[in-house]
Amino acid sequence: METAPKSGRDVPPKKDKLQTKRRKPRRYWEEETVPTRDGASAGPPCNKKNRELRPQRRKNAHILKKSRISKKPQVPKKPREWKNPESQRSLSGAQDPFPGPAPVPVEVVQKFCRIDKSRKLPRSKAKTRSRLEVAEAEEEETSIKAARSELLLAEEPGFLEGEDGEDTAKICQADIVEAVDIASGAKHFDLNLRQFGPYRLNYSRTGRHLAFGGRRGHVAALDWVTKKLMCEINVMEAVRDIRFLHSEALLAVAQNRWLHIYDNQGIELHCIRRCDRVTRLEFLPFHFLLATASETGFLTYLDVSVGKIVAALNARAGRLDVMSQNPYNAVIHLGHSNGTVSLWSPAMKEPLAKILCHRGGVRAVAVDSTGTYMATSGLDHQLKIFDLRGTYQPLSTRTLPHGAGHLAFSQRGLLVAGMGDVVNIWAGQGKASPPSLEQPYLTHRLSGPVHGLQFCPFEDVLGVGHSGGITSMLVPGAGEPNFDGLESNPYRSRKQRQEWEVKALLEKVPAELICLDPRALAKVDVISLEQGKKERIERLGYDPEAKAPFQPKPKQKGRSSTASLVKRKRKVMDEEHRDKVRQSLQQQQQRHKEVKAKSTGAWPSALDRFVR
C-alpha cells in the first residue's frame, strides 16, 4: 500500500515498472536526447556550435587499447605520483643538515686518478672526443669510489716503541709474545728438525700456508695458522729450493738433478728434465712463469699454465745461486761472482741492465714491494741499498761484521739480513722510504746458521729456515694490515680459489711485456711511428696524409649509400694519384733531358769521374 509523501518534502512519486526499466548507456559518439513530458525526443541539445559531446579526458590518463595478440584484460598503469621532497624529511619533521653524499678531499681522489685531463688530443674526431669524455667520466667516478672505500681500510699497521731511551733491538721475542694477545702469540713457534736441515722455506701468496724443504730430502707443507699438516714426504734427494706456484695446491721443488712438481697431498705430478741442477726458484704470479737458475749458468722461464719453456737465457757468468724478483715489473735480478747484478727479461737475450755493486762476489739480493729499492750484500761485508728509478746509485751503505748471506724485504719496507746465526731487522720511515741502516729495529739469535728468510704476507711474522729447523718470529709493523679479498684472500674457500684461478688465467700477462718500466706499455712509440711514416712516404713517393681526405657530400634519392660514397672517394683518390704520378714522371723526364744535354755538349773524358 502506497503512502502519500509527507508535507514539506519534495519526494517524487514512484514510477511504474515500465518506466523504471534500465536505460541503455549512451556512448560518447551518440547525441544526447532529453525526454519531454510527452515522451518524445526533443532533438539535439541547444549548444552554440552544435558540437558532439565527448567525455573530457584527464591529462596523462591511460586508454585501454584492444590487444591483437592476447585476449587477457589489460590493467591500466597507475600514473606516477609526484612526491613532495619536503614531506620526506624524517618522522620528527627535521631536515637533514648535511644533504647529499659526503664530500671527498681532492688530494685523495687525485691519488687514485689515472687519466691526465690536461693532455688533449690535437685534431681529434668528434666520435673520439665523445669516447674520451665517457672514459674520463667513468675514471672520475671510479676514483671517487676508491677514495670513499679507503675509509673502510680500518686496520692499522703494528709498531714497536720502547720507553724513553730504550733500544728496541734489545727486546727479545719472549717479551713480545708476553705483551701481545693469545692469537698473536701463537704465531711464534719453533720446529726442531735438526735431522734433515738446513731448510729453505716459502709462504703462499695469501700468507696462509707454509712450505719448507731440507737439504736431506724432507719436504712438508702445512697451514701454519691452524698448524694443520697438508703433506710430508721425503724425496730421498737433496732439496735446494722450494716454491709455491699460483696457489697452495701446487708445489715446485728444486731437487739435486731435476725440477719436480708436487700437489698439496705430496703426489708427484711432473718431472721437468729440461730444468736440471737448479739452485734457485722464483715464481711470477701475474705471468704464470717459474724462473729457475742453474749451476750451468742458464736462466730458464717455464710457463706453468701450458707446461712449455718460454725462454732459456745464458747469463755467461758461471754458476747462478743468487736470484730475486722485482714484484713491481717482474724483472729477475741475478747476482754474480764478479760483483755485478744483472736484470733479465724473457723477451731479451741480453740483460736489460748491469749494476756494479761490490768489489767481491754478490751473496744476496732483495727488492722491495714497490720496485724502488734494491738491497745487496757481498763478500766485502758491505750492505748497500740502491735506487732503481733510473739512477742505479747506492743510497746508503753499512759494513757488517760477518756479511749478510740472506736478505728479504717486507710489505711495509722492513729489511732483514741473516748473518750466521743472527737476524737483524732495519726499519724506515714508511712503506715508500728506504730502511735506515744506522740502528737495527730488532735482533734475534737462532740455534743454527740461517739458510732462508721470508716475511709472511699480511702478517707481522718472519719465517727463518736454519740448520736446526724452522723459526717463526714476531716483527710488529712488517705486514700489510689490509688485503684485497678478490686478489689474495687468506680466508677463501675451495670454490673461491677455483674461481680465482680461472679469472687469473684469463687475465694472464704475456711474457713479452716484461720490461723495466711497465708504464711504457701505455705510451705511444713516437720514434717507431715517425720512422714508419717516413718509410711509407719513400715507398709511395708522396705523403698520403698531407691533404685532408675527401669527404663526399650527401645526396638525395638513395645516391648516398655506402657503396656510392666509397666509389666516389676512390674515384677522387685515383685522380689525385694520377696527378702525382704524372708530376713525378715529368720531373724524371726533365732530369733525363738535362743529363742528355750535358752529355751531347762535349766528348766524354776519363777525368769526368772526378767531377763533382
Automatic annotation (TrEMBL):
WD repeats: 355-389
Major site of localization recorded for this protein: nucleus
Keywords: Nucleus, Phosphoprotein, Repeat, WD repeat
InterPro entries recorded: BING4_C_dom (IPR012952), WD40/YVTN_repeat-like_dom_sf (IPR015943), WD40_repeat_dom_sf (IPR036322), WD40_rpt (IPR001680), WDR46/Utp7 (IPR040315)
Localization per record: Nucleus, Nucleolus
Species the sequence originates in: Rhinopithecus roxellana
Taxonomic lineage of the native organism: Eukaryota, Metazoa, Chordata, Craniata, Vertebrata
Name this protein carries in UniProt: WD repeat-containing protein 46
Biased amino acid composition, Basic residues: 56-77
